[in-house]
């Protein structure tokens, strides 16, 4: 049983494959295929069962949206990666703009 300190941790491996599949209405095989392709690598429980974090579930949702738009899995991975890089760049630009000038 996880302790309360882990409840707010988006990287804590909380969800089983079955739970994620039900939440996202996807097949468990889809989730296993993401793991086999090294796209989403869930942690493993002591018994060897996959455990997904909230961050991973969010990424699966984003990938699924791209797939539903007709993109290939490779394109979906690239698009989400580029979106993340763009967000990081915007964050860095904002940080730099807010720094006092020397």
TrEMBL record:
Residues 14-82 form the HTH merR-type domain. SUPFAM superfamilies: Putative DNA-binding domain. GO terms for molecular function: DNA binding. This is Transcriptional regulator, MerR family. InterPro entries: DNA-bd_dom_put_sf, MerR-type_HTH_dom. The lineage of its organism: Bacteria, Bacillati, Actinomycetota, Actinomycetes, Glycomycetales. PROSITE patterns: HTH_MERR_2. Pfam families: MerR_1. GO terms for biological process: regulation of DNA-templated transcription.
């Amino acid at each position: 049983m996880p302790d309360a300190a882990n409840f707010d941790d988006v990287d804590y491996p909380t969800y089983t494959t079955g739970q994620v599949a039900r939440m996202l209405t996807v097949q468990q095989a889809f989730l296993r295929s993401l793991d086999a392709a090294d796209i989403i690598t869930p942690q493993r429980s002591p018994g060897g069962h996959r455990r997904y974090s909230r961050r991973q579930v969010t990424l699966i949702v984003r990938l699924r949206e791209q797939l539903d738009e007709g993109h290939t899995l490779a394109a979906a991975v690239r698009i989400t990666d580029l979106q993340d890089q763009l967000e990081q760049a915007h964050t860095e630009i904002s940080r730099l703009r807010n720094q006092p000038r020397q």
